[in-house]
Every structure is written in structure tokens, then in C-alpha cells.
């Protein structure tokens, strides 16, 4: 229902059956026509109760508050008819809208001495003239994009050189909204003293219009259609990663996400060895500074490779900080307190999960801050951590501490190189096979051969202590002979896989199927995070009291199995509430197991092996996250590509278009003029995301079986030793 001015009074000609004024044509006429049409269909028995719904909203010209409020009703629908005055024809689509404000800053002075000032109006006019001369993108269907300077104001009087001026402008977007924004930004950059602020935007909207017996036409105005959610697949472009917009190279996007965790896993054994060298208080500072360097490198990156390198450096810092956090916890707490402090560590982790996507997404969508501040924001946070560390943490050394030079000589450097190289190559092989390299290509074969060779050499080097000794080996594998240690580590690795899939693919599902932007998609992850936090706290409080831990792994494994199996049934039309509810079930299972193992391991190994047990716990946990995500990414890219290629093969899309679509970028697939193309594409993407949920089922089974085979013993956390078996 449009907001219309009152200048034309409402008149009704009952004889002619004509209503004029007060929005009779736009939009009360289409509303009345739809009501009468549905009533006729009902009387003819062609529709029944529940088949058709009406949605009347207000405020289309004022930012769409009515439609935005309607979206909160969690609407789902299969098809829609949007009423607009189109001369009785079906609309092929309508142009998008980009509204922006130009602001010019000058210097005031008396108009008799203009050389002493800077005229802001002159600066503004230069920018407006250049924008008016731009050749804006065109569409075969919608025609050219058009520019309009709608409102200009500025200055203080005829006798004063204007100190400021501004203009409110708009482009009716026929195609390529990102390109138009880039063009505007480039023009303004050439005009000193002028700045641009984008107010609001939405892309062109293409509609289904191929119905026999109807004429069709494109329209140049905008409507509320882009704001309607529930099945608006045209909004899928909202999830395009800003990093790709800056640098391209879609095949490397996966590494931006996984480089951090992969380097975590790669560096854990070395971080374990370095922990015994020197004061832990200063080591925290060193790892914080490493993280600072990584954040700065990613934030200032001139290309995507630099972003990945920065993320890897962050991973090195993160590996050390995580290791030190657990070591310090074990040193300053009693057995009972340790379980609870580890629970608090998990809560802190979960809070980071909750805030990270929201803050990062907000920066990425902000035209001034951009995605780079999602990296830079770490710098002030780490500065606070460094200060708090010096104020709160005493001077302390790890158990079995040794002098620095002696410790450096004792490191198994051959094992470190093989461990880091093997794991990075494994992740690379999983990520690139099928998506970047054909499975039968030389690159894929060579990569997997090298993975096998490196790990064979690594196993032999560790087993026979080549270039090292049994005590100095990079991986303290002998500790895995302890039944409790191996089962805790395996279960923790499995729960890491559950965590990774839920964390990554739940927001991805909402982004693809509901058209949510990164922030809105991340908000839908909150049920998972809240139950994760709740059950982590509950488990951390109960385990030290009852002394038994195996039941929590059995229960946690069962919850993740059930949750994963239910999530594997989702489709593109599955409701938000169902997906969010099931994700909370998975969060509960993960919370039962995520940090529980540290306190158990400290009770189950001698004091001189606790550092080794901690390192194995961290390595298994993070390896579960990164390897499972790499496997899921391989499935998503390969199976998704096959499905889309098969179903869209005759639509003229290149392999690159399909790869871009799977990455959530502004692909030609999502902007196709036939809505049925995007409908099919979204359906296939949702199916592949559902298939990946079986990885949660598999990981849940591993965790469940690990819990079943654990000792059903009772530990005495009060005395710090095992009480009964």
C-alpha cells in the first residue's frame, strides 16, 4: 500500500465504476483485484483454505518498514503475485535503487576575496558533472541505469564563499550494482574535498513472466519485492565475500577461512616444546604480538595471498595462546577448579563465536570501515590483553622448564617440518581436489602422492626416532597408549568436527536459502551458541562433583547424532525455526564434550606428562575442526558443482559462473532472468549443505562409541587422583 500525497482528493463515480485519487491505482486497485480473484477461485473450488494468503504492507517509499516487519513473521511461500500498476501486463522485472549523498567541504570567506577560500559548491558541481557524464551499465531486459541528482543544498549567502554543500543522488540500477558503486567511488576520489556516503541500496529484480495469454513489460521504478524474504533467491548475492570483491581468485577463498585453524594444528607440537622455555608471562606477550602482526598483514593486504598469510600468522599466535591458556589453568587451579576454569574458557570461546561473525559482518558491510577492520579490530583487543596480562599474571614457568638454548637444541626440528608441511599439504589437497584441479589431473595425483609420502616418512621418523630421540619426538605418541588419553582425544577430535560443520554451514544455509546478509545469517547461529555455552557450564560444574565423565560423552555423542540426522533432512523451504531448533540440539551435544577432556586428562596421566597430554588434546581438537571442514568443503564444491552443472547445463553458464555461485558470490547464476534457474540452484545448494550434515552424524557416532569404551570410573577431583574404578 503506497504512501500517497493528499493533493488529489478521493472521488468515486458509482455510475462509471471508477475510483480516483488517494492511491486508487497504486495500489488499492491491484489489492481489490486480487481479493476478487481469490474469491472467484474459492467459489469455483480451485483454491482451498491455506492455499493463498494476502500480505498488505505499508511504507514502500520510506524504507519498507511494513515489509521488514512482515519478514519477522518467518514467512515461507512457493510463489507470489505482487500488485503494481503495469498497464495490465506482467512485469518482467524492475530496476534496483542506489541512493547516496555527496558532501563537499570548503573554506568560507567573503565573496569579495574568493581566492582566500574554497567554494564547496564548486567542488560539489565538479563531482556532479562527472557523474552525469558516466555511461552507466545497461540491461537487455531493463534498459540503461539512470542517474538523478535529486536535491542540492549548501552555502550561507550570496556574499559568502560556501564552506559546505551536499547533494542527494540516486541511480536506478538496471545491472551490476557493485560496478556502479565502484564507479561512483572512483569519480568521487578524483574530486578533492568531496566525500560519498551510500544511504541504501538494492539490486535489480527479475521476475517470472513467461505465462501464456499475458503481455509483459519491464518497469523503471522500484518496489518492495527485494525486501520480501522467505524465498527471495535474488538476494543470494548478499553473501558475496567482500574479500573476493577486492581481490578475486575464487579458488583461494576457502583458504581465507581455514588458514587460521590449519596453522593452529600445524604449530601445536612446536608450541608445546617452546612452552618450557622461559617465563610464561612473557610468552603470552610474544604470541599476542605474533597475532597482532598477522592481523595487520591481513588488514593491509594488497592481494588475497597476503590475507591468507596474515591469517596463517594469526594461527601461529592463536596456537601458542591456546596452549598457554590451558597450561596456566592446570598450574594455578585445583583439580575441581580446573574443570570449571576450562568451562569458562569454552564460554569465552563461544562468546567469540557469537560476536565474531556479527562484528566482522558489520564491518564488511560498512562502506567506510570495510572488511579490513574485521582484521584491525584485533589490535586494540590484543593491546588490552597484553596490559591485563602484565597486571594479573605472575612470573611463572612451565613444569620441566629448561634453559632456552638447551630447549631449542632439544626440539625435533625434522618432525616439526614434516608435521607442518604434511598437514598444510593435506588441507590443500582436500580443498583444491575437484574444485581447482580435476580429480584425474597431474596436480591432484601429485598432491595426494606427496601427502602419502610425507606422512609415511613422518611416521617412520617418529617411530624410529630419526634425527631425534624418544623423549624429544615432535609427537608424544606413546601417551596415546593410555586408554583414557586416546579415547578422550578421539572423542574431542570428533566433537571438533561437529562444531566446525554446525558453525560454518548453518549460517551458509540461511544465506543461500533465505537471502540473509552475513550479520542476519550469523544471528541464526545463536541457538547453537547458547546451548553450547549452557551445557559447557553445566558439564564443567557437574563432572567434578560426581567424578564420572563417560556418560557426558555418551550423551553428547547421542545428541549430535540425532541433531545431525535431523539437519540432514533440511531443504530450501525448511523453516528457520526448525533449523535453529535442531542446531541447538547439536550445540548441547558439543557443549557436553568440548572442554571436558582437559580436567580428565590431568587426572589420568603423571604430572610430568601433563604438558604432553595437553598438546595432544589441543591438536586432536583443532585437527577435527580443520580436517572436517576441509572434507566438507571438498564435498560442497564437488557434489554441488556436479548437481548445478547437470541441472543448469543448458543455461549457458560457465564452470566459473557455477564456482562463483557455490562460493556465494555475485554470480550470473543468481542474476539469471529466469527465476526458475535460481530456484533450482538454491535447491541443489541446500541439498549439498544437508548432505554435509552426515559428517556431524559420523563424528557423533565416533564420540558416542568413544564414550562407551571409556572407563566407567569415578575420579576424585577433591584429592586430585583417581578414587575408584
From TrEMBL:
<feature type="transmembrane region" description="Helical">
    <location>
        <begin position="614"/>
        <end position="639"/>
    </location>
</feature>
<dbReference type="InterPro" id="IPR011701">
    <property type="entry name" value="MFS"/>
</dbReference>
<keyword id="KW-0812">Transmembrane</keyword>
<dbReference type="InterPro" id="IPR036259">
    <property type="entry name" value="MFS_trans_sf"/>
</dbReference>
<comment type="similarity">
    <text>Belongs to the peptidase M20A family.</text>
</comment>
<feature type="transmembrane region" description="Helical">
    <location>
        <begin position="370"/>
        <end position="392"/>
    </location>
</feature>
<dbReference type="InterPro" id="IPR036264">
    <property type="entry name" value="Bact_exopeptidase_dim_dom"/>
</dbReference>
<feature type="transmembrane region" description="Helical">
    <location>
        <begin position="694"/>
        <end position="712"/>
    </location>
</feature>
<keyword id="KW-1133">Transmembrane helix</keyword>
<feature type="transmembrane region" description="Helical">
    <location>
        <begin position="485"/>
        <end position="505"/>
    </location>
</feature>
<keyword id="KW-0378">Hydrolase</keyword>
<keyword id="KW-0813">Transport</keyword>
<feature type="transmembrane region" description="Helical">
    <location>
        <begin position="525"/>
        <end position="545"/>
    </location>
</feature>
<dbReference type="Pfam" id="PF07687">
    <property type="entry name" value="M20_dimer"/>
</dbReference>
<feature type="transmembrane region" description="Helical">
    <location>
        <begin position="445"/>
        <end position="464"/>
    </location>
</feature>
<feature type="transmembrane region" description="Helical">
    <location>
        <begin position="413"/>
        <end position="433"/>
    </location>
</feature>
<dbReference type="InterPro" id="IPR020846">
    <property type="entry name" value="MFS_dom"/>
</dbReference>
<keyword id="KW-0472">Membrane</keyword>
<feature type="transmembrane region" description="Helical">
    <location>
        <begin position="552"/>
        <end position="570"/>
    </location>
</feature>
<feature type="domain" description="Major facilitator superfamily (MFS) profile">
    <location>
        <begin position="218"/>
        <end position="715"/>
    </location>
</feature>
<dbReference type="GO" id="GO:0016787">
    <property type="term" value="F:hydrolase activity"/>
</dbReference>
<comment type="similarity">
    <text>Belongs to the major facilitator superfamily. TCR/Tet family.</text>
</comment>
<dbReference type="GO" id="GO:0022857">
    <property type="term" value="F:transmembrane transporter activity"/>
</dbReference>
<feature type="transmembrane region" description="Helical">
    <location>
        <begin position="284"/>
        <end position="302"/>
    </location>
</feature>
<feature type="transmembrane region" description="Helical">
    <location>
        <begin position="308"/>
        <end position="332"/>
    </location>
</feature>
<dbReference type="GO" id="GO:0005886">
    <property type="term" value="C:plasma membrane"/>
</dbReference>
<dbReference type="InterPro" id="IPR011650">
    <property type="entry name" value="Peptidase_M20_dimer"/>
</dbReference>
<protein>
    <submittedName>
        <fullName>Major facilitator superfamily transporter</fullName>
    </submittedName>
</protein>
<dbReference type="InterPro" id="IPR001261">
    <property type="entry name" value="ArgE/DapE_CS"/>
</dbReference>
<feature type="transmembrane region" description="Helical">
    <location>
        <begin position="344"/>
        <end position="364"/>
    </location>
</feature>
<feature type="transmembrane region" description="Helical">
    <location>
        <begin position="252"/>
        <end position="272"/>
    </location>
</feature>
<dbReference type="Pfam" id="PF07690">
    <property type="entry name" value="MFS_1"/>
</dbReference>
<feature type="transmembrane region" description="Helical">
    <location>
        <begin position="582"/>
        <end position="602"/>
    </location>
</feature>
